[in-house]
Write a structure and sequence with these properties.
The complex is a heterodimer of chains A (254) and B (355). With 254 residues, chain A is mainly beta. Chain A is built from 4 helices and 14 strands. Classes of the chains: A mainly beta (254), B mainly alpha (355).
Chain lengths: 254, 355
């Protein structure tokens, strides 16, 4: 009889454990990710779409109508050189709050981390044509004739031109660069940030300064480079990559 | 003590169970027949957890889809305006309701609706689920002009429907909710994924012509057709993004489209991108059926774009009136578009009138 009671207690304890979503690990902290956007410090959200005017370095006054971009391979590196992958990839869409702020379900021990890195777009290893069902479903693919894989960014809107009677569209789309027929060049950006300390639940805030896409080092003239940029390696795709080097900053918050 | 433990165990077992319907009636579950290309590339279709696909539910829904008793005078079924031979749209620009009243939009074709992941249905996104979409035409005074209480009473009074509802849902009491669920189940089975271009994408190089391949390249070329940003691609073979765009049809709007639903002026003139499958059967085209032929559609994007404040930036060549395609490019693009049509779909016996 005593053995039966013990067996029942074991079953009860098993049921208790199986009903708990995860172990209580008070010594580790949850990592969340925030993807935010600004124009030289002024916050940009979907509420600005079609309304707020921004002026780029070249002087064009523009309105944003759509912004989606891909962030992948968010990695924390500890003082031993061990890498902890925080997230594999996220298609950020300013009209979808779930892509702007989200918990990763990754917990990490407290301490000093030597760095955090992420990839804007996909690196060559991850940019596998048609390999991600959710991104295919979101029509996020980059045409095969331009190297395949996926878009890195779709940044669209209109801008005014003194000689045009109507606002003109721009479609600043970034992805793999086509060098010539069948020859392609990787065009992703790896962002590395040094030194950070984690002693509580932490949000990694990846900030994108939209103004930088038009600014540094290439002073972007939307009158010349407004549309049909996807297949233009020398004068668009590589220039986007160069300007993109200074677009991102990373902050930590609770 | 032993009893206490047994109660405790039972309690835990129940709390860990994922289903609370185990003791309820269960019709026969059945999976959707997913085309290979869809399963290779796309997320699984959307099936609401409170309306799973069942053999009995689909059978009932199909019968209801073709049932004229759903209309106010018993003369018009869903299928009157969504004809299988037209890929479940109407060849008339505007459909005529039971009173002779005429609508203001072209009936949307019906297929592959379980792959509309945002679940915004109708040209303007006015229905937020397939079940909700079913509801509106029945009460719409210029369409079927009925009331739901009358629909329920009419069906309840027949000799056959109470039994069919019992088989499908375990209850002979007919409700609006169960009618819409059954029709939605049937509509989710209306799947089209076997065009010649599908076969080509699955590896059969002999199913398409050189002109059709050239047309596909125009479709995918940002500097020519640039159709793929809104209309899917070889990687998204639904051939629509199921998103709302102003594609440059008008300088001002009588029909606000999405803006009429959201109330946001920035959405005025936006309508859902339709899928490009089965265009051989779905004329006329656009939300208001203004174009009778595909040539007119292609000419619109090539030379006919009109500016308005909410025009989509992807209408890139608005200053020139469009993409300025050559006549050869237009012919190739049209050939490609027609290769997305699936004649077998329109005569699929599973979708025909069972009554």
């Amino acid at each position: 009889m005593k053995m039966k009671k013990i067996a029942l207690l074991v079953i009860v304890m098993t049921a208790l454990v199986s009903c708990t979503s995860h172990d209580d690990k008070t010594s580790e902290f949850l990592i969340s990710i925030s993807n935010s956007q600004h124009w030289n410090g002024e916050s940009v959200t979907a509420n600005d779409f079609g309304i707020t005017e921004f002026t780029n370095k070249h002087g064009e006054v523009l309105k944003i109508q759509r912004l989606r971009y891909l962030i992948s391979k968010v990695i924390l590196t500890n003082s031993y050189g061990d890498e902890i992958e925080i997230g594999d990839y996220k298609l950020v869409d300013l009209t979808d709050d779930n892509t702007l702020n989200y918990a990763t379900n990754i917990v990490v021990p407290p301490g000093t981390y030597t760095g955090i890195s992420f990839v804007y777009g996909f690196n060559e290893e991850d940019n596998i044509n048609q390999d991600y069902a959710d991104l295919n479903t979101a029509s996020w693919n980059w045409p095969d004739m331009l190297g395949g894989g996926y878009h890195f960014m779709q940044f669209e809107g209109t801008f005014t031109n003194q000689t045009a009677e109507i606002p003109l569209p721009f479609a600043y789309h970034n992805g793999t660069a086509r060098v010539s027929e069948g020859v392609f060049e990787q065009n992703f950006i790896t962002v590395n940030v040094d030194g950070l300390s984690i002693d509580s639940n932490t949000t990694i805030d990846i900030k994108m300064n939209l103004a930088e896409w038009f600014k540094n080092p290439n002073n972007w003239d939307l009158n010349v480079l407004g549309t049909n940029l996807m297949g233009n390696r020398d004068n668009a795709q590589i220039m986007m990559n160069e300007n993109g080097q200074s677009v991102f900053t990373v902050y930590l918050g609770d | 003590m032993r009893c206490f433990l047994i109660v405790l165990i039972t309690g835990f077992l129940i709390s860990c169970s994922s289903s609370d319907n185990d003791l309820g009636y269960q019709a026969t579950p059945i999976d959707l027949e997913i085309p290979q290309l869809f399963s290779n590339l796309l997320l699984p279709p959307t099936i609401p957890s409170d309306n799973p696909q069942t053999i009995e539910g689909i059978t009932l829904g199909r019968k209801l889809f073709y049932e004229p008793l759903l209309s106010g005078d018993g003369t018009q079924a869903c299928a009157n305006c969504h004809l299988s031979e037209n890929s479940f749209t109407d060849s008339d620009r505007f459909s005529t309701g039971i009173t002779g009243a005429i609508g203001t939009r072209n009936a949307m074709p019906l297929y592959n609706m379980a792959w509309n992941f945002e679940e915004n249905f109708l040209w303007d996104g006015g229905a937020k689920s397939l079940e909700e979409q079913v509801s509106d035409p029945i009460e719409n005074v210029i369409e079927m002009n009925n009331t739901w209480p009358n629909v329920v009473t009419t069906l309840q009074g027949t000799s056959i429907y109470p039994e069919l509802f019992t088989q499908a849902f375990g209850s002979s009491t007919i409700t609006k909710e169960l009618v819409t669920k059954a029709i939605a189940q049937f509509e989710r089975t209306i799947i089209s994924g076997n065009s010649r271009f599908d076969q080509y994408l699955l590896g059969d190089q002999n199913t398409v012509t050189v002109s059709e391949i050239r047309g596909f390249n125009i479709f995918m070329d940002e500097e020519r057709g640039d159709c793929f940003h809104c209309h899917g691609s070889n990687s998204n073979p639904i051939w629509t993004d199921n998103i709302f765009h102003n594609n440059g049809l008008d300088s001002s709007f009588d029909d606000m489209g999405l803006g009429g639903i959201t109330g946001d002026p920035l959405d005025n003139g936006k309508f859902k991108s339709p899928s490009l499958r089965n265009l051989a059967f779905t004329a006329p085209y656009m939300h208001d059926g203004r174009f009778e032929t595909l040539d007119e559609v292609i000419n619109h994007y090539s030379e006919g774009l009109v500016y308005s404040e909410t025009i989509d930036p992807l209408m890139k060549n608005i200053a020139e009136g469009g993409a300025q395609l050559t006549e050869v490019d237009k012919a190739d693009l049209k050939a490609f578009l027609l290769s997305l049509s699936d004649p077998g779909f329109t005569i699929n016996p599973d979708f025909q009138n069972p009554n």
